[in-house]
Structure formats: structure tokens, C-alpha cells
Specification:
Blueprint: H1 13-30, H2 35-54, H3 75-81
Amino acid sequence: MKSTEKKGPYFTEGDLEQIRAAVQAVGKLEGYASITDFVEAAARRELRRLQRKYNNGRKWPGIEAGQLRPGRRTREETARYEDR
């Protein structure tokens, strides 16, 4: 993949609208200059939380691209995680 190609998560249009609205409304106040800033900060916070909860606060060994299952969740997976 070329470095100029987009990489990363996909969102529903509704979620994207809310992310855009949040960045426009309070992005400057919170230090988010872009949607990317917002999403990266959220992902880092969640990563640190998971590291604390499941890995004694330590980083996991990195995983190369392509080693995780690609694609969206199955319907069963979606149903299991909807009520979190």
C-alpha cells in the first residue's frame, strides 16, 4: 500500500456525521485539528485502557498488517457486541 493511500477504520455515515460535528464544535478547544486527530486520540486512549486491563499496562508485541482477519464483523459478532 502506498503511503498516500488511506488506511484505517470505517464508520457508518451517522457516526461520521457525529465525529465531524464534534470536531467542528469543540475540536479547537480539545486539541483536535482534524477527524484523524480525534480518531487517533480515541484509539490511543482505548489501547492504553486495554493494555492496563489485559496486559499489566505493558505494550503488546506489534502485529504486521495482514495478520488479522480482514473485513467487517459477522452478524453474530455484531449482535454480541451491540449491548456493550
